[in-house]
């Protein structure tokens, strides 16, 4: 990594990922907003998939539990 | 636009162009001949330069979605400016094509834009080009003047009747912080004066960005002044401060929940009309 911070030039874009996982887009243009929205959608579907997976696991576990004598 | 209004706007464009012969549009009073390609503090000559146009959803709810048109060049040097690169090198932006911009405004309206939002940089330093653009707009379009309000008396004269909503930045609560962070003297007198003027000629939203560590010196005095001077004005508090890398004076942290709670405490104390 360079010691000096990168100085933006016209046309560059800057995204900062903070320690707590917060993503900051500097002066987002339409392209960045599209990226953010697609990340948001992807993230949402990932969360849903994980939740569904948990639910499925729970269902499977329940069936397993109910089959026990 | 009615023919008499059109005649008036041509007069205003002519006047705005003439001022650039010896530019005194803003308090920097550079007195350079921008019509001959010379540049002063704002680094732009007489040409209108646009570096971005987009449908923005991040403005105040009553303005959004807003068709944001960004013009290059600014008369302040805010350390935390998020488009600083365009103000430092405004000639990297395209010279505005008025036919194209008028067309984009129509397209954005059809896409749901409630307002046309003129911002930058600082629109005031581009007053001649902006008047030319406004002269070509359908009067049904709501125009937002999204400005740092740091300009001379010439600008309000030129804008009167052409702007629907003044979205006025009031960044610092004292001249010392303004001198260090925004790079200007006499900030309060000029900006507050222009905000008061704007309140009498159009709808006004005063916007203040909460800077971490500047609650006592900037936030509180700003809200107190607003309560004393324009108690009915709409106030918009922004929490999206982005610390600049390597800045000398601008705070380095991000605004947190505690800052917001403090700000809201002042809002309640001063009974402000927050939106």
Short structural summary:
The complex is a heterodimer of chains A (69) and B (275). Chain A has one helix at 30-67; strands spanning 14-17, 23-26.
Plain-language structure description:
The complex is a heterodimer of chains A (69) and B (275). Helices cover 55% and strands 12% of the residues of chain A. By secondary structure, chain A is mainly alpha-helical. A two-stranded antiparallel ribbon of chain A has the order 1-2. The model of chain A has no long low-confidence stretch (mean pLDDT 72). Chain B has 275 residues and is of the alpha/beta class. Chain B has one domain (3-274): Aldolase class I (TIM Barrel), CATH 3.20.20. In chain B, helix 1 packs antiparallel against helix 4 (127-134) and helix 8 (215-229) packs parallel to helix 9.
CATH C-level class of chain B: Alpha Beta
Give the strand order of the largest sheet of chain A, numbering strands 1, 2, ... along the chain: 1-2
Q: Which secondary-structure class do the elements of chain B indicate?
A: alpha/beta
The CATH architecture of chain B can be named as Alpha-Beta Barrel
Record the strand order, biggest sheet of chain B: 3-1-2-4-5-6-7-8-9
Distance between the ends of chain B: 32 Å
Give unreliable regions of chain B as ranges: none
- The total count of helices of chain A amounts to 1
* Mean pLDDT rating of chain A: 72
Mind describing the biggest β-sheet of chain A? Answer: 2 strands, antiparallel
How would you spell out the order of helices and strands of chain B?
Answer: HEEHEHEHEHEHHEHEHE
Q: Could you name the CATH homologous superfamily of chain B?
A: Aldolase class I
Please indicate the percent range of residues of chain A in DSSP E strands (runs of 2 or more): 5-15%
Measured by residues with Cβ under 8 Å of the partner chain's Cβ, the largest interface is: A-B, 18 and 17 residues
Proportion in helices of chain A? 55-70%
- Residue stretches of chain A low in confidence (pLDDT < 50, at least 5 long) are none
- Number of alpha- plus pi-helical segments of chain B: 9
Gyration radius of chain A, rounded = 21 Å
CATH topology of chain B: TIM Barrel
N-to-C span of chain A? 61 Å
């Amino acid at each position: 990594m360079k010691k000096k911070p990168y100085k933006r030039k016209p046309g560059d874009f800057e995204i900062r990922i903070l320690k707590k996982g917060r993503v900051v887009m500097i002066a987002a243009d339409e392209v960045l907003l599209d990226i953010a929205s697609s990340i948001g959608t992807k993230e949402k579907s990932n969360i849903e998939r994980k939740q569904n997976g948990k639910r499925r696991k729970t269902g499977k576990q329940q069936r397993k539990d109910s089959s026990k004598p | 636009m009615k023919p008499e209004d059109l005649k008036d706007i041509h007069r205003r464009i002519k006047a705005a162009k003439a001022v650039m012969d010896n530019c005194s549009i803003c308090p920097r009073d550079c007195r350079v001949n921008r019509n001959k390609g010379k540049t002063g503090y704002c680094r732009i000559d007489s040409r209108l330069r646009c570096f971005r146009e987009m449908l923005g959803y991040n403005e105040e709810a009553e303005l959004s979605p807003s068709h944001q048109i960004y013009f290059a060049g600014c008369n302040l040097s805010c350390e935390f400016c998020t488009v600083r690169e365009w103000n430092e090198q405004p000639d990297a932006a395209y010279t505005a094509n008025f036919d194209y911009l008028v067309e984009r405004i129509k397209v954005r309206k059809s896409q749901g834009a409630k307002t046309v939002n003129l911002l930058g940089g600082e629109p005031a330093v581009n007053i001649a080009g902006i008047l030319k653009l406004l002269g070509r707009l359908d009067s049904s379009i709501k125009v937002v003047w999204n400005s740092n309000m740091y300009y001379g008396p010439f600008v309000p004269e030129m804008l009167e009747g052409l702007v629907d909503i003044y979205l006025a930045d009031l960044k610092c609560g004292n001249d010392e912080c303004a001198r260090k962070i925004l790079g200007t003297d006499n900030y309060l007198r000029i900006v507050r004066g222009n905000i008061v003027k704007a309140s009498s000629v159009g709808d006004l939203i005063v916007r203040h960005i909460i800077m971490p560590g500047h609650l006592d010196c900037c936030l509180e005095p700003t809200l107190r002044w607003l309560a004393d001077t324009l108690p009915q004005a709409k106030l918009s508090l922004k929490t999206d401060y982005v610390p600049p890398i390597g800045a000398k004076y601008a705070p380095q942290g991000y605004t947190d929940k505690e800052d917001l709670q403090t700000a809201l405490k002042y809002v309640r104390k001063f009974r402000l009309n927050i939106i």
